[in-house]
Amino acid sequence: MQPTSKAPDTMSQRIDYMQQSPELFKKFSAFSGALGTCAIEAPTRLLVDIRASQLNGCAFCLDMHVKQARLAGERELRLHHVAIWRESPLFSERERAALAWTEVLTRLPADGVGDEDFEAARSHFSDKELSDLSFVVMSINAWNRVNAAFRSVPGSLDKAFGLDKADLH
For the domain bounded by 40-166, which CATH number is listed? Predict the structure, then answer.
C-alpha cells in the first residue's frame, strides 16, 4: 500500500529537529545565514524562498517567508502573484529568471537541468550570481524538506524570529 499525502486532521509537530540535532541545525542555520551576504539581492531571495516553499508544500516555510517579505516592505499583491509569476506583470525579468531557476532546481528533471534552462538563467545572472542563486535554492529546499517531514507548525516560531511584527494572522 502506498503512503498517502493526506493532510493531518490536527497539525502537530512530529519531531523537534532543532532539539534532536542541535549541532547540525546550528551549522545549517549558519550556512543559510551566510546567504544574506551573497550576490543575490534580499527581495529576490525572499521570492525564491516563497516559490520553492509553494512548490514543496511547506506550510511552515511559506508562512515564515511571506511574513519576512512583508516586514521587508514587499507589496502584498506581488506576494499573491508569486504562484502565478509567469502570467503576472509585477516581476522584473531578473526576478522571473530567478523564479524559473528555482522551479527547475526544485523540480529537478530526470535528465538534469537542460541547456535552455541554464542559458535562460545565465542571461540574467553572472556566473557568481547564478552560483549564489543555486545555493539559495538549495538552502530553501533543504529547509522545506525538514520542516515538511516533521510538520513544523506555521507561525509557531513567529515571536522567536520577530515575525509577529508582520501582524499577519
Answer: 1.20.1290.10
